Amino acid sequence: MRHKQEADPAPEVFGTVERSSLSTQAYQQIRKALMVGELKPGQKLNGRELALRLGTSLTPVREALLQMVAEGILESRTGQSITVPKPTRSVYGELRDIRAEVEGLGAERAAQRIDDAGIAELAALHDGLVRGKAERDYGTALRFNEAFHLGLARQSGMPRLYRVVEGLWAQSGPFLNYLYNGPEGWPVGDDPHAHVEVMEALRRRDGAGARAAIVKDILRGGAGMMQRLPD
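Structure for FCD domain-containing protein, as requested:
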């Protein structure tokens, strides 16, 4: 007589979701640290130290780091040590040019749909950048600068473009440490700053003007950066 086959036990769905969530959170926080330049070029990333800072176990941190290696955001040459890539002029130049194209499109689209509240939000972020520069607090300046660029991309209403911009900033963010490398490295103030030109174009609903202004900002900042990077 054929016995009835026993049903397989239900998969541990909740445990899998929880682990995935921790890995995702670790990924997002480490990537944000890269985007604002908190993690430095050439820095070796210790999984246990990061796990302690994030208040989690080593496994989700390791998974997040390996995902970033696969995406080309981080490097792992020995199979053991994971580091923040050291910048070169050619790598930064490529990232800069791609950012100009993608963020330029985002600014153009943002001009077609942004409202006064959105412009006020960008203005507040730019004010934070100005204060950081005035106080020689480059960490604050970098965070507000990144927030302005991502805020502008978000206003485009193009979520896929926004994710591309995030990925580009994760790769180029650590390089920004070279932009404010000591008092002599602080850029001379623009008159007006390109961010101000972006907001003026947004108020006019001038897509071409907004694109031109953010491209100007990216290329002008990149020019100073290129002087500080090795070949």
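The beta strands are 44-45, 82-83.
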